[in-house]
Each structure stands twice: as structure tokens, then as C-alpha cells.
Amino acid sequence: MNKIVAKRFPRNAVRAGAVAVGVLAAVPLVGQGMAHADTQVRLPNQTVTKKLADGTALTITRTNERARINPSMGGTPLHRNAWVSGRYDVKASDKKAKLGIASGYIVGCQLTLGGNSTTKGTATPGTGDYDVPISATAETGASVTLGPGQAANYTINDVEGKDDFGAESHGAAVTFAGGSGAVAYTNETMMINGCAGYAQARSYAKVQVMTDHTTQVVYLYGKPFSLG
């Protein structure tokens, strides 16, 4: 934090000092119109409980979701940057259940990312659970180019592992045993290029639950917010 120190000047130096300050103060005002302050967005907490096919109750809680949005360094309306943070806590009533928790954001250009329901469930994992076409998938930190009517899926997690043949594999889900788990992230970056109109983003959690009797995927969507 900058510290301002007040100094006492001789009486005959006050007028000259005032003139000098006036000249210097005029310099940064020329560029002030080009500067853009970051927009801070804080989103509501949410808890949803869904009953699975075998009667297992799954509770997903989203807390501390927030976003900091600013234009690009170039200052053009085609570019936007966002830093996002949040936390998901997941708990199943079946203590033996295994969980896979993936989180991310759907980002749309000239699309309204609304919806009547904040949860969706499917019998098997899939990517067709959102009501807009996804044109690109990227990890946070990457730049995605979107045109009008297009949407992208930004994934938060990148989990390294081995496939069935021992080769390196990557996934978006963090796995937990014992019926509960949590995923948190802070200041993950999303960069959107090419969108000349308004842009929106909406968080989601994709939770896969595996019990002795069923395997099911449940989605929780957050509140949409504007990227400008």
C-alpha cells in the first residue's frame, strides 16, 4: 500500500508548490479515461440434495464462489479475462460410496446461460447435459475464441493418472472414497477472445457417484454472471 507523507513547506514555497502539483496532477488524468477497474462479483452459496436410483442421498454444497473480471491489456471489447474461485463439498448418505468431483465453467458469447433447474442427473457420464452447444473445451489458464452463439467449457481440475495400459492419462475429476469429498480452487484464469457482444459465465460441478447398486452423474449449476 502506498503511504502518503505530509510535509510542512516554508510559507514562500506554498504558491510555487501548488502550481507544480497542479501541472503534475494533470498528466495522469489524460490516461484515466482508458483505465478500467476490475469488476468484483460475489455469487450466492447453494446446497442441493438429490436422491439417486438406489435411494442414496447426495448433497452438493457450493460456497465462496466469486469472480474478478477485467478487460484485456489491449483494452478492446473483444477480449475479457476472469479470475474465478469457489469450493464444492459433496457428501453421500452411503459411506461406502466413491465420488468423482469435477468443476468448471460454461462460458457463452451472446448466449443467456439460464435454465429452470440447477441440478441434472444422468444414468451414465456424458457431456450433453447442458442446454447450449459446446464449441470448445479448455483448461483454465487457456485462451478460447468464441463467436456469437458459441459456448466453451472451462475445466478447473487436471488430474494425472495411468490408464488400463499404463500410459499417462488426464482427467477432470478428483476421486474420493468414504462417501464424501471437497474440491476448492482460487484465482483460476479464463481468457475469452473474439466475442463482440455480451458474454456470460456459469459455474458447474459434475459429480459421479458409485455405490454397490448404481453409478450416476449429478450436475449442479451456479448462478450466471456477466463478463461484460
TrEMBL record:
The keyword Signal applies. The keyword Signal applies. Residues 1-37 form the signal peptide. InterPro entries: Porin_fam_mycobact-type. Keywords: Signal. Gene3D superfamilies: Porin MspA (Ig-like beta-sandwich domain), Porin MspA ribbon domain. Pfam families: MspA. This is MspA family porin. The lineage of its organism: Bacteria, Bacillati, Actinomycetota, Actinomycetes, Mycobacteriales.
